Amino acid sequence: MAKKTVLITGGAGFLGSHLCDRFIARGFKVIAVDNLITGAQRNIVHLSRHKDFKFIRHDISRPLKVAGGVDYVLHFASPASPVDYGNHPIATLQAGAQGTQNALDMARAKKATFLLASTSEVYGDPLVHPQKENYWGNVNPTGPRSVYDEAKRFAEALTFAYHRVHRVNVKIARIFNTYGPRMQIKDGRVVPNFIDQILHKRPLTVYGNGRQTRSFCYVDDLVDGITKLLFSKLRGPVNVGSPREFTILEFARLVKKTYDPHARIVFMPLPKDDPKQRRPDITLARRTLGWQPKVPLEKGIQMTMDWFTRHYDH
Ligand code: UDP
Hey, CA dihedral for 23, 6, 150, 233, is it positive or negative? Predict the structure, then answer.
């Protein structure tokens, strides 16, 4: 049987590169598309000689044509950390708007299944807890996070419009905080920040009073959830994330206790519109995909710490 082809936008990014690995391991042909503004070639360099892997350096907010068949289009291209999308606000809006449209046009032209990487940020600073897929969210439309939040909300709307108008087979995953190897150490997110601070013996920086909550999912679990969704009948949107919720201060204390009991915790200003609480209700993913995260936070953080220790020169 001919191999199926999957095209992954953002294929050199954190999640995209793990998806490339998974699809290569499962015997697919993989085309990774990335403009490398926040992705990095080092994330996919180990695949560069693989006969079924191809990298195209391209900004998906401009139209893209590829030769041959494509069976699946996974749209993962976008700056995704608050610091990164704060540094690239217009590129983030473009990745969500024109980028999503170009990826949908590709899926339509190739009669491929399309999967959108959406986000828990569509719920904004949620007034409902935990967040279920039928919650419409509480987003500041002009604040500093709006470039990401509204881009992804627009991307979800466009994805459903392509389904309704052009009958494209679409799927939407709402991805909650995910961590693991290949995050950029300087992307400003809490997991790489704390790891960087531990490795350099600097104080752990907690923003605000640290009572805001997040639920962290290890990247391998996330990739399992995405592949299950892709090959299921479910269209979504579906939450993919960990239901184990921590306050950021609890998380800092856990990192301190595990890696350096002498580490100091310092408090810094809370960024504007930082969501106060976030935890996915994953009933839909559990029931329809038979999916839930397996890797405990302590183990996932250890694997991430090991990776950063090996890959960065301290
Ligand atoms: N945060 C923190 N210290 C840091 C980085 C982040 O306390 O060094 C907090 C941040 O204010 C937020 C949470 O950790 O409440 C998660 O932030 P992150 O940027 O990882 O992801 P977000 O969920 O905000 O997109």
Answer: negative
Q: List residues near ligand 1 (CB under 6 A).
A: 81-82, 177, 188-190, 193, 205-207, 212, 214, 248, 270-271, 274
Give the number of other Cβ atoms within 10 Å of residue 175's Cβ. Answer: 22
195 part of a folded domain? no
Q: What is the pLDDT of residue 114?
A: 98
Give the SS3 label for residue 75. strand
Residue at 206 is within a domain: no
pLDDT of 314 reads 53
CATH number at residue 222: 3.40.50.720
Could you tell me the distance, in angstroms and rounded to a whole number, from the CA of residue 234 to the centre of ligand 1?
Answer: 31
On whether residue 207 sits in a domain, the answer given is no
Residue nearest to atom 12 of ligand 1 (CA): 274
User: What range does the domain containing 50 cover?
Assistant: 5-181+217-242+280-294
> Which atom of ligand 1 approaches the CA of 197 most closely?
8
Instruction: Say if residues 243 and 291 touch (Cβ distance below 8 Å).
Output: no
111-140 pLDDT, tens per residue? 999 999 999 999 999 999 999 999 999 999
pLDDT digit string (tens) for 172-216?
999 999 999 999 999 999 999 999 999 999 999 999 999 999 999
**Euclidean distance between CA atoms 82 and 148, whole angstroms:** 8
Determine the Cα–Cα distance for residues 211 and 191; give it in Å rounded to an integer. Answer: 16
Q: CB-based contacts of 46: which residues, under 8 Å, 6+ apart?
A: none
Query: What residues act catalytically?
Result: 148
Over the stretch 1-43, which tens digit does the pLDDT of each residue have? Answer: 789 999 999 999 999 999 999 999 999 999 999 999 999 999 9
Domain membership of residue 198 (yes or no) is no
Specify the number of domains making up the chain: 1
